Amino acid sequence: MPSYDPNNIFAKILRGELPSYKVYEDDKVLAFLDIMPRSPGHTLVLPKAPARNMLDVTPDDIAHVMTVVQKVAKAQMKAFAADGVTVQQFNEGAGGQVVFHLHVHVIPRKAGVAMKPPASEKEKPDVLADCAAKLTAALTG
Ligand code: DGP
Fold first, then answer.
1. Which neighbouring-strand residues pair with 32?
2. Which domain holds residue 75?
3. Are the C-beta atoms of 3 and 53 separated by less than 8 Å?
4. Are 10 and 101 in contact (CB under 8 A)?
5. Is the CB of 19 under 6 A from ligand 1?
6. Are strands 104-109 and 84-88 parallel, antiparallel or unpaired?
7. Nearest to 35 by CA among 120, 137, 134
């Protein structure tokens, strides 16, 4: 497996070099909205420590990421009146991974509504800002 590339786009977001619609942060984990959401509120949860994917992350870091995934999923049920949540995580190109800093997709779902295809279109900034505000409120309230 190739080594971690510190110039990947999520590493730049983690260093504050690129903007994101942040919804949760602690000392080990950052969560922000996917800019090409598969449904409104689609969130990515990342460890702050460098890890390419599930194959090189430390057990402690992935455990904490999944704890935050659960928090985000519960908050999405409330914030978006979701009927369910889909959790996805891809490893290496062959596994569907495009950005090589470990991230878990947390996607709120409505009954009978299909997800958009992966990375199909960039969402409008005002829609992302509104989703981030709703989700942050549910995560902190
Ligand atoms: P994957 O590596 O296959 O899990 O997909 C990467 C996801 O990252 C995809 O859903 C689109 C999203 N994405 C790509 N570029 C950016 C970006 O600059 N900012 C944000 N927030 N999401 C991005």
1. 22, 44
2. 9-140
3. no
4. yes
5. no
6. antiparallel
7. 120
Which residue type does 99 have?
V
Among residues 140, 138, 1, the alpha carbon closest in space to that of 78 is found at 138
Tokens 């690129």 locate to 18
- Residues in the chain with pLDDT < 70? none
Query: Residue 20 CA: which ligand 1 atom is closest?
Result: 21
Distance CA 41, CA 93 (A): 25
With respect to residue 2, please indicate whether it lies within any of the assigned structural domains: no
Q: Which atom of ligand 1 is nearest to the CA of 33?
A: 21
Measure 102 CA to ligand 1 centroid, in angstroms.
11
Q: Is residue 128 part of a domain?
A: yes
Identify the pLDDT of residue 141: 82
Element (H, E) at 127: helix 125-140
Q: Using one digit for the tens of pLDDT, what is the confidence trace for 39-79? A: 999 999 999 999 999 999 999 999 999 999 999 999 999 99
103 is catalytic: yes
* Alpha carbon distance 46, 56 (integer Å): 13
Q: Name residue, tokens 């369910």.
A: 84
**Where residue 37 sits, what CATH number does that domain have?**
3.30.428.10
